DUF4212 domain-containing protein
Amino acid sequence: MPAALDSVAAQRRRLVAARRAHWRRTRRITAILLLVWLATGFCTVFFARELAAWSLAGWPLPFYLAAQGASLVYLAILGAYVLAMRRADRRFLARLKDAPEAAS
């Protein structure tokens, strides 16, 4: 019976390690994408005077960046998050499927 308990304990350790790795990856992805979001919103406003000299179709560039560019970047951030989290979830599920086989 102690061998069976060791097997269960080892499987539990692998499960906990897989969960930790998954959440570490999730937090890193979220932090990076939040920094991109912050930079997009901040840089448009902070550099508006310098960018005002440039125009696009008669409108100042900061107008386009604030009105259109930021929205497109936000959509890209959402798409990147979806793809990254799908990949992270697949890795987590693969680690969960491998854990019981390794214990047997």
